[in-house]
Structure formats: structure tokens, C-alpha cells
Amino acid sequence: MTDLTLMEKIVSLAKRRGFVFPGSEIYGGLAGTFDYGPYGVLLKENVQQLWLQMFRDDRDDMYSVDATILMNPKIWEASGHVAGFSDPLVECEKCKRRFRADHLDNPTTCPECGGVLGEARQFNMMFKTHAGAMEDDSAVVYLRPETAGGIFANFKNVMDSLHPKLPFGIAQIGKAFRNEIAPRDFIFRLRELSQMEVEYFVSPKDWAQAFEEWRKVLHLFATAIGLPSNSVHELEIPPEELAHYSKRTIDFEFDYPFGRKELWGLAYRTDFDLSAHEKGSGVSLSYLDEETKEKYVPHVIEPSLGVDRTILAILTSAYREDALGGEVRTYLALAPKVAPVKAMVSPLLKNKPELVAKAREVREILKKVHPAIAWDDNGNIGKRYRRQDEIGTPFCVTIDFDTLGETPEHKDTVTLRHRDSGEQERLSIVEVAERIATAIR
Ligand code: GAP
Predict the structure, then answer these.
(1) Of 126, 177, 176, whose CA–CA distance to 151 is shortest?
(2) Residue 147 CA: which ligand 1 atom is closest?
(3) Among residues 167, 186, 261, 387, which is most buried (max CB within 10 A)?
(4) Is residue 107 part of a domain?
(5) Atom number, ligand 1, closest to the C-alpha of residue 145
(6) Does the beta carbon of 193 lie inside 6 Å of ligand 1?
(7) What is the Å distance from ligand 1's center to 190 Cα?
(8) pLDDT tens-digit profile of 89-109?
(9) Is-contact 96 80, C-beta < 8 A?
(10) Which of 316, 351, 380 is the last residue of a domain?
């Protein structure tokens, strides 16, 4: 399988099986937007839930906020985004198409028509709109380009309401918007994206230790969502390429079908943001250490994860083709924790009411282990298995006449079929429930 066809196959499966659809598709689409379908939503929720568990709930020093997307524009002036959140843009003098200069092999020639490209100019990537009925400059607001802004703006609120001691962090999941010059590579480079971000506030002397701690958490998260360790790589960003707020950044890159590219980032943002907001708002954002009586503006470590790039990395890692039973089979070897459906329950024959009733009973038992237990009685059993394989369901459970006691020693046992190997085993319903519980633990 060449890498290009792998990408095409992932995009096709994502659409065919209800993971990801092109945005506004019935109107011809809208560049840089994609919608999550029924299974995509479940996959995304599972990824976000696991992130919340590992980045917030497994720790005693983490809190959440859910800030607005529209915020006072002074936030983005203070953070440096109004002045500096831009990419170099070039325009072809002949066909008038626009390109990101740093993505071109030849920055002087148009890749579409061969025309001459003009001088590069900086293009601000923040989406602008107007709040209220006035459409003049005084009403300009921006759609947030990173969720981080809402965390910094709420630092004082969290301090004043919960009085946490340093170090502590604030986590947030939400939408961010970037007017990318060239959105591309499916859900890799979007104009509307989701981020899972932590701003972790530390004493300046503790930043390096906190940086190392979060670096480990990022690797653990990569493993938990099923990314093979040899497909995730760290890239130390050289000083001259650091974002305006960062003193140190490690990009976590992933081997996507179109090359090794940034998956997540880990940055040491120093006291840049809180100091800038202190200056911009006139409100003190410093912290008083009760023990040492020292007062200072906390420094920040920021693990920042794009949800959509994470989903694409998961789909890329999980996509498989084999020849099970002599037929070409496509399946997603998803980690059970993130799989949209944990198990599918099915009566061997759908026109036998006693089998259907027993299968429904089994499904209710398994639903107590996890709610995402599907039901499928359409078509023959082989077709049902293939459908579940393509959405990455780790287990299929089939109820047959033996379950009902036709062979007395098999009464109340079912067939458990494993997605990756296609192997089947005969187990009691209790054992099946345990297998599912263990797999998703
Ligand atoms: N708060 C820091 C920040 O936003 P970033 O490196 O610009 O840093 C963080 O973005 C993460 O957000 C990236 O590592 C990536 O996962 C995701 N991301 C950024 N731009 C994106 C885009 N246009 N489409 C999809 N995901 C994007």
C-alpha cells in the first residue's frame, strides 16, 4: 500500500462509515471544515475523555474552565496575536491564487500556472467578526485562535475562587479558529479545529521539572490512544523558530501518510502571557507564596493537543487490510478505550424470536459494563462482523441455539469474536463481560 493510497483509503473509510464528513458537503463544501459523524463523535468523545482523565482527573493539581470563543479583543492584543499571529502569504500576479510562502518549493513561481509570485506579506490568521449591531472598528472581535487565551483570562478567577497553591494547572477543551491560507490534508490543517490544552502554572525555578513531567504524560497519552511509539517523534524547536511566547518548545511529530508532521506541542511560555495580561488589563496576576512570602507572576508549561490531528493519527495507526478467510478485509485496530463501539451483540438468526430475546438480554447485561454496546441483526453474520471491523469494534458477541441450551453444557455461553485475529471462542456471558471490562480499563 503506498502512502498516498493509504490517505485516500482513510478518507474514504471515514466518510463511508460515518466518522468524518466534508463540511457543508451538500453545498459543495467549505474549505478547511469537516464534520464528525456518528462514530467520529464517539471516537472524539473517547479521546477527549481519556485526555481529561490523564491530564486532569488522575492528578490532584488540575482544574477546568470552559471559556467563551468570543473574548474582549484586548486579550489578543496583549497576547501578541493581533500583531504577530500570521503566516507569510504570496499572490500569483497572473492567476491571482494565494499560497503560504513557507510551503512552496519555489517561492518565486506559481505552482498552479507558472506565473510570477509577488512579494511575501504577513497575513493574520485570526477570524474577525463584529459584536453587536455596529460593524465599525470599535465592534471588532476575534474567534479565538487558541483555547489558551480563555485560560489565562480566567487565571485570577480560579485563584480567587479555589485558592490553589502553585504548582497547579487549568485544562480546557474547545474550538479554536485559524484562517489558514492553505487548509489541507483532510483534518490535519483546518480552519475550525478543537484543542485540548493545559496551562500549568509554576514557580519560575520549577519550570524545567514540570516540563519533563508533562513530556512523559504526552508519551503516555500517545500509548493510551494506540499510537505506536516508533511513529511519534520529538522535535526540539530551534530558538530562532520559537513562537513569540515560548522559551522552549518540543513538537511531538507523527508519521502521517503525507509525512512526519506536528501532532502536539509542549511549550515553556514563561510568564509571557500572565505578565502581558497584567500589563494589558491593569489587574495584578501575581501569586503570593504563603510560605516564602515571595510574590511573582507564575511561569507556564503548556501541553497543547489538537483533537483533529489526534484523530487522524489514530485512524492512520489503526488502518489495516488483510485477507481473513481468503477475502480482502479492512479493519481499524483501534485501542478498545477509544473505539466508538466496544462490542456488537447479535442473534445468529433474526427471525428466531427466542434468539433475539436472549441476545437483547445479553446486550443489556453488557451495557452495564459500557453503554457503547451495539446491536446488529442485519444480513448474514459475516457481513455484520465486517461492518464492525471497519469501525474498529474490538468484540462481536453472537447468541445461537447453544446459548439457549440446545447443547446443555453450552447453555448461557456465547461466541466471542476478536476483531484483529478473527478468532472465536466460547465463553460464558459473565466471562465476556469481564473481557470487555478488562479491555477498556
Ligand atoms: N496554545 C498553543 C497553540 O495553540 P499551536 O502549535 O499553534 O500552539 C497547538 O497549536 C496544536 O493545535 C497543534 O499541535 C495541533 O495539534 C493543533 N493545530 C494547530 N493548528 C491547527 C490546524 N490548522 N488544524 C488542526 N489542528 C491544528
Answers:
(1) 176
(2) 1
(3) 186
(4) no
(5) 4
(6) yes
(7) 9
(8) 999 999 999 999 988 999 899
(9) no
(10) 316
Q: Closest Cα to residue 55, out of 174, 249, 220?
A: 220
Q: Is 86 contained in some domain?
A: no
* Same-domain status, 215 and 304: yes
For residues 358 and 401, the answer to whether their CB atoms sit within 8 Å is no
Q: Are residues 257 and 157 in the same domain?
A: yes
Separation of CA 40 from chain center:
11
Asked if the model's pLDDT at residue 77 lies above 80, the reply is: yes
Q: Of all atoms in ligand 1, which is nearest to the CA of residue 148? A: 1
Mean pLDDT on 317-337: 94
Cβ(304) – ligand 1 distance below 6 Å: yes
Query: Is 179 in the same domain as 49?
Result: yes
What is the average pLDDT score of the chain? 96
Q: Distance between CA atoms of 322 and 121, rounded to whole angstroms?
A: 49
**Residue-range definition of the domain harbouring residue 193:** 4-70+148-316
Residues 201 and 348 in one domain: no
Which range has the worst mean pLDDT, 59-73, 166-180, 397-411? 397-411
146 lines ligand 1 (CB under 6 A): yes
